[in-house]
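[Automated response] Your request has been received and processed.

Submitted sequence:
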Amino acid sequence: MTLFWNFLWNLLYKSQKIILREEWTLKFLYYNKTMDKNKLDEINQLIVDKKFEEAKAELEKYNPDEEKETEALKLLGLCNVNLEKYKDGQSNFETVVKYDPEDASSWFYLANCYDNLDDVIHAKAAYQKVIELRENFIDAYKNLCVLYVRCD
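Generated structure:
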């Protein structure tokens, strides 16, 4: 991946389509610290093995708060949900759906976070968004029904 960024840098620099600024250069150099697919696969395996604390520690080494890191941010959110850190999970999944509003799974986990934090209004809206995006998402229907029953 670094080879790709070096190629892109040279292409843009030589065509003079960008203005070199210290801020952009730092972001370019920071890319080397982002997560590659192999690392994501390793972290996925930790999650499958239910080693959520270890997976979370690995994920937090990388600053997964940017648009290009939504996969890492989803995994971090999943770790937080499984560790019952719903406020952190909420923050993670809110960022994911901001950049990928068509991701029904992330909406579902966001709804779970809201639900566990007793934020009924946001939980209902998030479950409804899941159903809007994926009509056959049975767990979203089930959780929404339970939420309605609990509220009455």
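Summary generated for your ticket: Residues 1-33 have pLDDT under 50 and may be disordered. Residues 2 and 141 are 43 Å apart (CA to CA).
If you did not submit this request, please reply to this message.
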